[in-house]
Design brief:
The chain is an alpha+beta fold and 272 residues long. 21% of the residues lie in helices and 32% in strands.
Length: 272
């Protein structure tokens, strides 16, 4: 059994590319147009590029990489871009290009929404997608995260942190290993660690909160897991409304709307 922390003796650089892709959905009940627009504003403030940048920096540290440079730019009327340059191995200060700011953002006036981080042969990206429809009282906030690494580092170590960094009601996760590397005898290696399921790298306490299924293609080193929150605590899904302000029948109606939305997103199709 080859674990994540076990190193195989290789010839030259580890050329395997390991990519972890997340879609995280946060569901909310916001009935009036004012509530819906206030919710979108709240999401923009709660998940602005400063916070997203911190998340990417934390992930970089967790997977054992090193941030060399951060550049940020926000746009009018909305949106922002952030780029991280990262090295797999630690570099001494004299080896770092003098143009690098080493985790010091070049623009502190950041307000939003897209982040891209580049490792020396890899990258990290985050994009946010809040949405609502005037005919539907349920609003949805989606976060797309990609962590792609080359070499011996792997993004699987950051799963619990990423799930906990957002209000994650629905989660779809893809993990794939591409390319090949060689051992010292020249034998090709198409994966450098054992994996049967993405769920094996998620803490049991986290998993117990979700229903989860796998769709894996083992011969191609492609792994897919979908997760849906088990328990709906209604107060967590109401925006500017207290649960006890609602009649019991209304609570049941909202609970049903939320669950239907989750089931359709989890299933990837219109059901109801």
């Amino acid at each position: 059994m080859i674990g994540l922390n076990d190193k195989i003796r290789l010839y030259g650089f580890n050329n395997l590319t390991k990519t972890l892709s997340f879609n995280i959905y946060d569901i909310c009940y916001a009935k009036s147009p004012r509530e819906q627009h206030d919710y979108i504003k709240y999401i923009d403030e709660q998940y602005n590029s400063d916070r997203l940048t911190k998340i990417l920096c934390d992930v970089t540290e967790m997977i054992g990489a090193h941030v060399l440079n951060i550049s940020k730019q926000d746009y009018e009327p909305q949106g922002a871009s952030v780029t991280l340059l990262i090295s797999e191995e630690h570099l001494d200060e004299e080896d770092i290009d003098e143009s690098c700011n080493m985790r010091i953002a070049t623009n502190n006036n950041i307000d939003k929404q897209s982040i891209a981080g580049h490792l020396d042969k890899s990258h990290l990206t985050v994009h946010t997608y809040p949405e609502f429809h005037p005919d539907n009282a349920v609003t949805t906030f989606r976060v797309d995260i990609d962590v792609s690494t080359c070499g011996h580092i792997t993004p699987l170590k950051c799963l619990d942190y990423l799930i906990g960094s957002f209000d994650s009601d629905i989660i779809t996760i893809d993990y794939r290993v591409r390319g090949f590397t060689r051992d010292q005898k020249g034998k090709k290696l198409f994966i450098d660690h054992d994996i049967k399921s993405i769920q094996d790298y998620i803490d049991n306490e986290t998993l117990n909160r979700y229903d989860a299924i796998d769709v894996n293609v083992y011969q191609s080193n492609i792994f897919h897991t979908k997760m849906m929150i088990k328990e709906i605590i209604l107060q967590n899904y109401l925006f500017n409304t207290d649960t006890y302000e609602l009649a019991p029948k209304k609570r049941l109606e909202i609970n049903d709307l939320l669950r239907r939305e989750m089931i359709e997103i989890f299933s990837g199709q219109n059901i109801f």
